[in-house]
Amino acid sequence: MRTRIETLVKKVNRIAYRWGRFVAKGVTIALSQSARLIPIEPNRIVCISHIQGLQCADSPMCITQYLLDHYKGDFEICWLVKDPRRFKELEDKGIRLVKFKTLSDFYYSNTAQVFISNLFGPPPWVVKRKNKMIVETTHGVAYKSLRSSKVSSFEVGFPEIKSASWKINGATLCLSGNRICSEDVYRNELGYRGEILEEGLPRNDVFFTDGRKQDARVRECFSLDDECRIVLMMPTWRKDHSRENIEIDYHALVHALEELYGGKWTVLLRLHHLSKVDISDIMDTYSDCVLNATDYPVVQDLLCAGDLLITDYSSVMWDFALRERPILIFAPDGEEYRQGRGFNVPPEEWGLVTSSTQSELLDGIRSHSYEELCEASRAHLKRFGSCETGHATEAVCKRIASFCRTED
Question: Is residue 109 located within the same domain as residue 164?
């Protein structure tokens, strides 16, 4: 009897889901059509930097700060956030906070003259219009393939599923930091045919400064003195939330770094913001040499402070390479990842020291000088055709200001 009831419940759930998709699609179409009747509000800019409105960061925030500093009072800037109470300090700067996925979100997003995101395109309720500029700053360089990526209800709150290529073509201007992103990702993989601004990513402009302020903030936060050298452990997200990409002997790692490169080394371990991995045992076992940096708010600060980066497939390797500092790839699940998500550019073409076991990782450290690893990072930038200038924020803000003046 119980089995029959469970089977019936599953059938009902399937029917409800199908009807939910149908109704949601109809609602989306209706809203999209009605949005075209709402007039655009000149000089209104709406930004979002996280699929759930959980953060106010990355390139959209760099653009926001530049506009506030150099175009004072010229724009009404709004940010979509899940919990406006968390970002009250932004209101003191004159930024309007709009609750994500509400009618207010729909109104402000569709009346904005400019919409800025780093999500590979705007949410589905943002309507592309002739007198509207939609700027895509991208979340990363896309070492990983996007061809099979989906935008699910987890990301946009709608039951229907759309491909990444569907989203990106909602943009009118995409920013790029290298040739791979422009041609292989935007053009070939996602089929984007709009304009690409090859001036770099605004969030990376900081790497063309000395980074002292960012370094000082990190050291103050984690109580590290100026002599301590920092190795960043920053893996990407895993759908199955596995831990094998962080399970190493950190004592052995630190010992190898200190033996070869000198000085005292400390590990800052930062998990992806979507990760649900429990690392309490790691923090207990290696409390003398590992600090948890997962909740540190600004990734770019950490990259400015780091002396060496260990990652797997995270696009932070591109950002860190701009510092021309050593990068080591530690990817125990390389073949499995290749067969699953896949790569836009395979790891063997990155030109970085790659390992799949702890012994290989330590051998990679012992068999290369610090300068050799730095040179590999410089070669990585050339291999991908870097077009980072250190002036990406200024370039896109000038484009935004010009567009708004033209459309007024």
Answer: yes
Instruction: Count Cβ atoms below 10 Å from residue 88 Cβ, excluding itself.
Output: 9
The answer to whether 392 and 208 have CB atoms below 8 angstroms apart is no
Higher-confidence residue: 325 or 243?
Answer: 325
Q: Are 404 and 42 in contact (CB under 8 A)?
A: yes
Nearest CA-CA partner of 382 in 176, 141, 178, 145: 178
Q: Does pLDDT of 81 surpass 70?
A: yes
* Among the listed residues 142, 112, 143, the one whose alpha carbon sits nearest the alpha carbon of residue 125: 112
| Model pLDDT for residues 173-203, shown as the tens digit of each residue | 999 999 999 998 889 888 889 999 999 999 9
Contact 368, 351 (CB under 8 A): no
In CATH, what number is assigned to the domain containing residue 243? 3.40.50.12580
pLDDT of 42 > 70? The answer is yes
The pair of structure tokens assigned to 226 is 């100026």
Taking the CA atoms of residue 52, residue 58, residue 64 and residue 68 in that order, the dihedral angle to the nearest 10 degrees is 130
Phi, psi dihedrals of residue 308, rounded to the nearest 5°: -160, 140
Q: Please, which residues have CB within 8 angstroms of residue 16's CB and are 6 or more apart in sequence?
A: none
Strands 133-136 and 173-175, bridge-based pairing: parallel
Rounding to the nearest 10 degrees, give the CA dihedral for residues 88, 60, 95, 122. Answer: -100
pLDDT at 147: 60
Same domain, 66 and 98: yes
User: What pTM did the predictor assign?
Assistant: 0.86
Per-residue pLDDT tens over the stretch 11-30: 545 554 455 555 555 555 56
Number of domains the chain is built from:
2
The residue segments making up the domain with residue 314 are: 212-383
What does the alpha-carbon distance between residue 333 and residue 313 come to, in Å, rounded to a whole number? 11
| Secondary structure (3-state) at 211 | coil
Q: Are residues 196 and 233 in the same domain?
A: no
Nearest to 397 by CA among 124, 45, 28: 45
